[in-house]
Amino acid sequence: MKKAVGLGVAALLSMFVMTGCSEGESASEGDKETFTLKMSTQMADGHPMVEGFNELSEILDEKSDGRLKMEVYPSAQLGSDEDVIEQAIQGVNVAVLTDGGRMGNYVEDIGIIGAPYLTDNYEDVLKITQGDTFKSWEKELADENDIRVLSFNWYDGARHFLTNEPIETPEDLDGLRIRTPGAPVWSESIKAMGATPIAMPWTEVYTAIQQGAIDGAEAQHTSTYSSRIYEVVKYVNKTSHFQLINGIIVGEKWFETLPEDLQELLLVETKAVAEENAKMIAGMSEEYEEKMKAEGMEINEVDVDAFKEAADKAYEILGLTELREQINEEIK
């Protein structure tokens, strides 16, 4: 009987140790300490950017000799972006794909990176993220908000309005309830261009349009296609109002637990994979349009100049006019 009890206790202790290691931020494998980072995104599995995250995971595992592992969780499996950001700030071993609009909730001026028609292409947005002004925002995020930017050069293309009626000018958006992320810069921009902004997670958009809770959304081709929005929306109205550049962030507290060599590896490889992934996505716009047309969507050209003029109101309302001029000077 004593022997049986002893074996039972040993088994329970073994289970406890195994459970503790699987749930913690780091664990020991032999003589080396390993770290696990959980990568969260609202994007669906199969999205080309998610493919980039999977590639990054393999590279980190290989180049760290198994000491740094990244698990990828698409389709908001870990929760909303806002929730995961707050977890990261608290020191949880999570990363999240985010944008300037959401980061603007912590460092207000960085929100301009998500403002309408700030630039017309990825190359100019990239120049902004490499400039001194943007670097000062990254420092403020780390020093005052415990948010570490790993990279901010992930590109997902231009965003367009998705509706069941053709949109030619801003006046055609009047009264339409359009889903957009909830950050102020996004909401004010959509409002300035004529629509009523509705904040909700991307994963709820398909059903919301289907049930008539919203009249449409605004998104980039990669998400529109991979989320099958073409099943509930007829028109892609090519406004190209946002150039969607994204960043991966982690909590500064968790980042500081990494040895210096793993910190450097994470920073270098995240930027490198993002650069290659951005080039791939930038070249896929026509391919996605053809795929959506094959599914019955119509690609509608619009009066872009009229939308640019309307969008200027957002800069005035948000107090970003002078900052816009400063940034334009910086990237010349």
Automatic annotation (TrEMBL):
Pfam families: DctP
InterPro entries the record matches: DctP_fam (IPR018389), TRAP_DctP (IPR004682), TRAP_DctP_sf (IPR038404)
Name listed for the protein in its UniProt record: C4-dicarboxylate TRAP transporter substrate-binding protein
Gene3D superfamilies xrefs: Bacterial extracellular solute-binding protein, family 7
Alphabetically ordered keywords of this record: Signal
Signal peptide: 1-19
